[in-house]
Amino acid sequence: MEQRTLGADVCVGAVGLGCAGMSGAYGRSADEQSIATFRNALDAGITFIDTADHYGMGHNETLIGQALRPADRDRAVVSVKFGALFGVDGSVRGINGRPDAIPNFLGYSLQRLGTDYVDIYRPARLDPVVPIEETVGAVAEMVQKGYVRGIGLSEVGAETIRRAHAVHPITDVQIEYSLFSRDVEDEILPTCRELGIGVTAYGVLAQGMLTGTWRPSAGDARHRGHLPRFAAGNIETNLALVERLREIATSRSATVAQLAIAWVLAQGRVHRDIVALVGASRPRSIAEAVDAAGLRLTEDDLDAIEQAVPRGAVAGERYAPALLALLDSERTGGRR
Ligand SMILES: NC(=O)c1ccc[n+]([C@@H]2O[C@H](COP(=O)([O-])OP(=O)(O)OC[C@H]3O[C@@H](n4cnc5c(N)ncnc54)[C@H](OP(=O)(O)O)[C@@H]3O)[C@@H](O)[C@H]2O)c1
C-alpha cells in the first residue's frame, strides 16, 4: 500500500484502521469478526491502528491486545486517545488532561493492550482548564521513559497545535475530514503542513453515510440518531448527495465508500501527509478500503466530485451541540 509520513518519520499505510466500531460504536459487533478484520488489515498493509481507552470502556484496547500478534507488534503503529470522561451510565463527563492523570491512564492502556509502549498517545480532546503545554509536557515525560513513541492531538485548532508543537514535536493531528466535513482546509491543515505534522482523517465515510449502502433503521437510530447529519430532515439531503456520488463511483467501477476514501487520500497525495482512517469491523469493509487506496482519482474525477458535493452542501453539524462544545477545533482555527 502507498505510504504516508506522519511528523518527521512515522511511515504508515495511506489507509488506517479505526477500531471504535469493534466495541459497539454502531451497534453490536462480534469479537471474532473484529479480530479477523484487524488481522486482515495488517496483512493488507494497513499499519496505523486507532483506538481510545474509552472505546467500549476498555473493551477496544483489550480486543486489540488479543488481535495484535507479537510478530506484528513492530509494524503496527498503535494510536491511543486518553482523557475522555464518562459516567457509569455512559453519559459524557468532560475531559481530563491533567499531568498527574496521564501515567495512570497510560498504565491501564498498556496493560489492556498487552504491550510495553504506545506508538502515538494523544488527548482525545483539549481539556479547557489545563494548558496544552502541561498535558503535552506530561506525555513527553512518558516519551522520555520509553512508554510512548510519539505525541498526537485530536480535534484541536491551529493555535493549540502551535503551542503543543513548541513543547514537543507533534506527530499527527486526528480530525474529522471528509467530503462532508471540510473546515479543516481553512487553517488546521495549512498549519499542520507548515509545521510538518501529519493528519489522520477520521469520519472519512461520514460515520457510514458516505458508503452508499447505509439505510435508516429503527435499531440504528440508537447509535446514529444523536448525530445531526442522521436526523430526520437532514438525512434526505445527505442521501441525495450520496446518490450524486454513486454515478461518479460507477464510472470508475468503484463503490461510493471507495470514492469517499480516495477523495481524502487525494487531498494528501502531493504532501503525502494525510492518512484516511476507515472505521471497520468487517473484513469486507477492509477489502474495499484497501482497493480504495489504489484508486487514483483524475482531475476530472475531482472536479465532478466537487460539483456533486460542493463544500458546505451537507445538512447538519458533525456533532450534537454538547459534543461540539468540547471541540477546540471548532473554536480556534476550525470553523469560519
Ligand atoms: N479523534 C476523534 O475524535 C475520533 C472521533 C471519532 C472516530 N475516531 C476514529 O476514527 C475511526 C473511524 O471514524 P468513524 O467511526 O467516524 O467512521 P467512518 O469511518 O466514517 O464510518 C464507519 C462506518 O462505515 C462502515 N463502513 C466502512 N467501510 C464500509 C464499506 N466499504 N461499505 C459499507 N460500510 C462501510 C463501518 O461498518 P463496519 O463496522 O460494519 O465495517 C462503520 O459503520 C473510529 O473507529 C475511531 O478510531 C476518532
Automatic annotation (TrEMBL):
A GO molecular function held by the record: oxidoreductase activity
Statement: the UniProt record of this protein carries the keyword Transcription regulation: no
Coiled-coil parts of chain: none
InterPro entries, alphabetized: Aldo-Keto_reductase (IPR050791), NAD(P)_OxRdtase_dom_sf (IPR036812), NADP_OxRdtase_dom (IPR023210)
GO cellular component entries: cytoplasm
Record's keyword terms, sorted: Oxidoreductase
Ranges of residues in domain NADP-dependent oxidoreductase: 15-308
Entry-linked Gene3D superfamilies: NADP-dependent oxidoreductase domain (3.20.20.100)
The protein's name in its UniProt record: Aldo/keto reductase
Species, as recorded: Streptosporangium carneum
Lineage: Bacteria, Bacillati, Actinomycetota, Actinomycetes, Streptosporangiales
